[in-house]
From TrEMBL:
Gene3D superfamilies linked: Porin
The keyword DNA-binding is assigned to this record: no
Keywords, in A-Z order: Signal, Transport
InterPro entries: OM_porin_bac, Porin_dom_sf
Name listed for the protein in its UniProt record: Outer membrane porin, OprD family
GO cellular component: membrane
Signal peptide, first to last residue: 1-23
Family: Belongs to the outer membrane porin (Opr) (TC 1.B.25) family.
GO molecular function: porin activity
Pfam families registered for this protein in UniProt: OprD (PF03573)
Length: 435
């Protein structure tokens, strides 16, 4: 946090230099108070591990302040993110591993928890440097927001739009705070049990035409892996209310540092060729999304090579149980499974409907089914799994409760590689603008 404090101090010092700078800093500032009420129920329908069900209910508050920039060729600003969670219900035996709510010393759910993130920012022309608390949304790193409070990272990120139709991004991440924790941890790869101290990344999005975008990103998690991502997205407009989007994604992930040398703790769990825990993976996917008015149909296929599981940043195997919870830039990252096991081949299809098409704006529904097979095992055989997810969302459109959102997620998974599960999530959310 020392780097964050340095940038924040510089920004505040610059703000104090003139009345005009101070005015610009405040006039463009925005603040919102987000509230999220979250009920989570995951029922393990088989397997000997206890407990058989995770069931928790909590209320979250998210105060998000984003300042403007001071006047001048170099603009300075400060953002702040205050997060607080309050446990409403989580009895002993139904709270597991800080999936959503942190645990106390007796492994019970805490009554409340909170954290504060500060981000100093500097802007020159169309280039912005952010240093402090970050929530990246990049192909090689996606902050998880699948429970009450979001996962956050600490580090620096620079984004530049100086060149027309080209956005460049780079940076370094050094710490993470899990969605069910108030404590920072180091970094790790999926299945790794020892901390890395640096995740470096760089890449860009090039809008070749108004309908065609190409992406390339490179990332290195010290002592674990290097990863390259290639992406291509194209949208074909068929008519005024019809389009066909093509989305191609390819990840190339290779071992690096201690993982290459087989150092204990930096090896990953799960199937690897040679049973050596070394990362060696190629994952590609292709998806077609056909939209016609209120209807959207997605069909796709994903292939994971057999060298090892697909991996990205995940702190789930570190000692801090609340560090768990990671998101992947994959269509197969669903409510329960991710379909990223070594050798796995997955076909998926989704149907979504916006009820504004029949005069009910704010109401949306979707259902997706995924089927994976050819999962490699240490015995030489293969396994398979499937998942079906349903999503239903409604946002009140008018009146005193305008903007209040209701969401329901239901997932059902049958897997030969893990426990069969049923999952339900109920979410009520509301955001109040303060500035």
């Amino acid at each position: 946090m020392s780097n964050t404090n340095t940038v924040v101090t510089l920004a505040l010092g610059a703000i104090a230099l003139s009345t005009q700078a101070h005015a610009d800093f405040l006039s463009d500032s925005k603040a919102t108070l987000g509230m999220r009420n979250f009920y989570f129920n995951n029922d393990n329908r088989d397997g000997p591990a206890a407990p058989s069900k995770t069931e928790e209910w909590a209320q979250g508050f998210m105060l998000d302040f984003k300042s403007g920039y001071t006047d001048g060729m170099v603009g300075f600003g400060v953002d702040a993110l205050g997060l607080m969670g309050i446990t409403l219900d989580s009895g002993k035996g139904r709270h597991v591993g800080s999936s959503m709510i942190p645990s106390d010393s007796d492994n019970r759910a805490v009554d409340e928890w909170s954290r504060l993130g500060l981000t100093g920012k500097v802007k020159i022309s169309k280039t912005e440097l952010r240093l402090g608390t970050l929530m990246p949304k990049l192909p090689i790193l996606v902050a998880n927001d699948g429970r009450l409070l979001p996962q956050t990272f600490e580090g620096g990120q620079i984004t530049s739009g100086e060149f027309k139709d080209l956005t460049l991004t780079g940076g370094r991440i050094e710490h993470a705070t899990g969605r069910g924790s108030s404590d920072q941890t180091g970094l790790a790869a999926t299945g790794g049990t020892r901390e890395s101290n640096a995740f470096d990344f760089a890449g860009g999005d090039w809008k070749i035409t108004k309908d065609l975008t190409a992406q390339y990103y490179y990332a290195n998690l010290d002592d674990y892996y290097t990863q390259q991502f290639f992406g291509l997205m194209h949208t074909l407009t068929i008519s005024d209310n019809q389009s066909l989007k093509t989305d191609l994604r390819y990840f190339k992930t290779d071992s690096s540092g201690a993982n290459s040398s087989g150092t204990s703790g930096y090896r990953i769990s799960g199937y690897t060729e040679g049973a050596d825990g070394e990362i060696d993976n190629r994952t590609w996917s292709a998806a077609l999304i056909y939209t016609a008015g209120a209807h959207a149909v997605t069909a796709g296929y994903q292939s994971v090579s057999s060298g090892s599981n697909f991996t990205q940043l995940s702190q789930g195997n570190l000692p801090d149980k609340g560090a768990g919870g990671a998101s992947l830039y994959l269509y197969t990252d669903r409510l329960i499974q991710t379909f990223t096991r070594a050798g796995e081949r997955t076909a998926f299809g989704q149907y979504a409907y916006d009820f504004a098409g029949v005069g009910v704006p704010g109401l949306k529904a979707s259902v997706i089914y995924l089927s994976g097979d050819n999962i490699k095992t240490a015995t030489g055989g293969t396994q398979k799994e499937w998942e079906r997810d349903i999503g239903l969302d409604y946002a009140i459109q008018s009146g005193a409760l305008k903007g209040v959102g209701f969401g329901w997620r239901n997932g059902k998974s049958n897997s030969e590689a893990s426990r069969n599960q049923d999952q339900n999530r109920l979410i009520v959310s509301y955001s109040i603008p303060l500035l």
